[in-house]
Design brief:
This protein has about 70 residues and is mainly alpha-helical. It contains two helices and two strands; from the N terminus they run αββα. A two-stranded antiparallel ribbon has the order 1-2. Strand 1 and strand 2 form a beta hairpin. It starts with 12 loop residues before the first helix and ends with a helix.
Length: about 70
């Protein structure tokens, strides 16, 4: 990345291992995440017990990434 160009490394062994771990962890936590419909209203009500917390997923799209790149 010396010239500032992105190099596609999605098939590297460490990336594959991390992606597998991440997806398994995400699946384990998904029951605590809210789901929203297209209008931004809560689509899935959670049945949490005392001491359990809602996990709020925060995402961005590539245009946000590129707007703040460099």
């Amino acid at each position: 990345m010396s010239n500032g160009m992105y190099v596609n490394g999605h098939e590297c062994e460490d990336v594959i291992a991390y992606r597998s771990w991440f997806l398994a962890e995400y699946e384990n936590l998904e029951w605590q995440m809210r789901r929203y419909d297209r209008d931004g209203k809560i689509d899935k009500l959670l049945d949490l017990q005392e001491g359990e917390r809602v996990i709020q997923e925060v995402t961005h799209n590539e245009s946000t990434f590129y707007a703040n790149n460099r």
